[in-house]
Write a structure and sequence with these properties.
Blueprint: E1 14-16, E2 26-32, E3 35-40, E4 44-49, E5 56-57
Antiparallel strand pairs: 1-2, 1-5, 2-3, 3-4
């Protein structure tokens, strides 16, 4: 999980938000401190505060539900 105190999220990375599984996988659009803009396949573009709702980094296409 990528959350408070974790760094290294970059635009283009694939993630999912365990707190909102119905949004599906998403792609990081931008990172500004603890605020990450993600374009989710089924949830659209969202700004996620990773200190409140950690994101799960997807390593490969096989991890995409």
């Amino acid at each position: 999980m990528v959350g408070s105190g974790d760094f290294g999220l970059m635009p283009g990375q694939r993630v999912r938000l365990p707190a909102a599984p119905d949004w599906g996988p998403g792609q990081v659009q931008s990172v500004a401190g603890q605020r990450v803009t993600v374009n989710f396949e089924d949830g659209g573009k969202k700004v996620v505060r990773i200190d409140v709702s950690p994101l799960e980094l997807l390593q490969s296409p096989e991890e995409t539900p």
